[in-house]
Amino acid sequence: MVKIEDFLNYLRYERNRSELTVCNYEQSLKDFEAYFKNRDNHLSWESVDSDIIRDWMESLMDKGDMASTVNTRLSAVRSFFRFALSRGMVECDPSHVVKGPKRQKPLPSYMREADMDRLIDLSQMWEDSYDGLRARTIIILFYETGMRLAEMTALDDQDIDFAAHQLKVTGKRNKQRIIPFGEELEQTLVTYMAQRDQQPTIADSKALIRNDKGERMTRSQIERIVNQRLSLVTTQKKRSPHVLRHSFATAMLNNGAGLENVQKLLGHASVATTEIYTHTTFEQLKRAYEKAHPRA
Prior knowledge:
The chain has 296 residues and is mainly α. It is 55% helix and 4% strand. The chain is built from 13 helices and three strands. The chain has helices at residues 4-14, 19-39, 50-62, 67-86, 113-121, 130-145, 149-153, 183-196, 219-230, 241-254, 259-266, 271-274, 276-292; strands at 160-161, 166-170, 176-180. A three-stranded antiparallel sheet has the order 1-2-3, with no helix packed on it. Strand 1 and strand 2 form a beta hairpin. Helix 6 packs across helix 10. The radius of gyration is 28 Å and the shape is elongated. The two termini are 54 Å apart. 25% of the residues are buried.
């Protein structure tokens, strides 16, 4: 006869699992047992089949459990059946053919175009100083190129080709790519670099973005600037350079750019990585539909 307690003791004394782990297994197993008993009082661990397990998982999803939670509970059932089968307590393991739900990747956080326009265009968002100009340059660089934080910190003056309106960045695994830019970023960079080179603390550096000592600005320094500036127009928790990269990709797709073009601009090895932004833009479309259609 199959007993949950035998399995729990096995976990405690033979596998040396923590009491927290044992309690989690116990909760999952008793939940499943209560489910199939409530469904049919004649069912037992020896008689449940894979369809019963799938129905139980579906009921968990219907109650709002996330895919990760359901997979954890399914893992407990699988472990129990493997134990019972190895001890001859059951004749077969119905759980080994059951696949857990796919974990949904969280949609990337991004800034709305209206918020970015307000941040960049309104003069009251920026103090009339070198620090304000440098901060605005950093924000525009991220938003208009989609580059990564590491790519910006590594950017040198020589990587910018003003005549061709393009810049060269070095991405993951030292792969280089060319990103075009427009007149707004050109004027911003020209103004920033002119004021930067007039600063009394400027050291002999080839870096584009420099701190107050004239040294290449660090990741944490840039992150702090981005967080502070985005907080002026949004209350969302994530206010990082990567949010601006997401915002670039989302804005491009929303305004008609092709997926493969955005992939190349972002430096993704596979277009599958870029496809997550299509979910973001579809969510925007869905919200607009639900808001605007009288019978939605």
